[in-house]
Design goal:
Bound molecules: NADPH dihydro-nicotinamide-adenine-dinucleotide phosphate, 3-Dehydrosphinganine
Structural class: alpha/beta
Strand content: 5-15%
Radius of gyration: 21 Å
Length: 328
Amino acid sequence: MASLFLLFLLVVPFAALLLLLLLAAVVRPRRVRIPIKGRHVLITGGSSGIGLALARRAATEGARVSILARNPARLEEARDTIRLATGVDAAVLAADVRDPTAVARALEEAGPVDVLVCNQGVFVPQELETQELEEVRFMVEVNLMGSFHLIKAALPAMKARARETGLPASIALVSSQAGQVGVYGYTAYSASKFGLRGLAEALQHEVIADNIHVSLIFPPDTETPGFAEEHKRRPELTHMIAGSSGGMKPDDVAEKALKGIKSGTFIIPCNFEGIMLSIATAGLSPQRSYLTAFVEVLGAGFMRLLGLCFQWNWFNTIEKWHAKKSNK
Ligand SMILES: NC(=O)C1=CN([C@@H]2O[C@H](COP(=O)(O)OP(=O)(O)OC[C@H]3O[C@@H](n4cnc5c(N)ncnc54)[C@H](OP(=O)(O)O)[C@@H]3O)[C@@H](O)[C@H]2O)C=CC1
Ligand SMILES: CCCCCCCCCCCCCCCC(=O)[C@@H](N)CO
């Protein structure tokens, strides 16, 4: 009995070590460091919330920053905020990401980009049955099609620049935890954000040979001006389910996002629940870290179980909510 236990004590660490070695050999793409200092970082939706926090951070770290959004007055305000906080003068670009010609013009004006952050986003939560199709289209066009327009406009010059400088470049997309799991009231929003994942996975295959690295950022509820607006009209159930993940401040999301972008991380979670969610939804996404891969491989079964428990809880919440409503 004792010797069996001893054998077990030897075999388990050995098997773990073997798995780690195997993962270290297979994880792709290879590790990378993407410098920010002195490079051109373009952030869409950079006039508010997460985008503004990111612009400030990038400027603090010595990047040349451009911000893009629709409203010129808000862009100017953001430029002042960034200058006041960092002493850096950001370039401002007024364009609607839904308009490919305007996006191409803005990117031409901005010049070659090293790090493109597609952070623009709109969110209007409502049950699909009552939501106007116009609003559905609005979310898909800004969040998903807008990102296509940006990437297509930026890519040729980005490639050329990466080739010339020999430095790795980055395309980062801001999704949402509602882009990892579908949430009540977010049919259109979740669809637009899940869409970014397909775009990112396929794009990484396409641009890896050009030394361009794709990142997907998955924030939870974050205290931004956009969120304050959303909050006013969010269905009660959306609120209850989204509450499963703790809220964050824009600057903390920006910190996690920038750290992830600089290390070329494909999936960037922002809080503890986000880490759990990312392990549970690892799927077939690229993974450069053999340690994270190790956790994903060993955690897969347990995380599926945990995910099912979360779903059990959410469906319970929905059931009770309907029961309460029909009792009134
Ligand atoms: N806050 C949250 O709880 C969470 C947010 N996210 C995501 O993070 C991103 C940023 O969100 P947040 O900071 O809260 O958003 P805000 O609403 O605070 O800011 C949105 C930014 O996007 C710009 N924008 C909106 N529509 C367009 C457009 N059509 N063309 C160009 N720019 C546009 C806005 O400027 P203007 O209106 O002038 O165009 C603004 O700068 C979004 O993609 C969002 O989905 C993800 C998870 C949680
Ligand atoms: C297996 C382990 C599971 C771990 C916990 C899962 C928690 C999921 C919560 C989903 C929250 C969705 C927030 C969307 C925020 C957002 O995008 C809006 N504010 C609009 O911007």
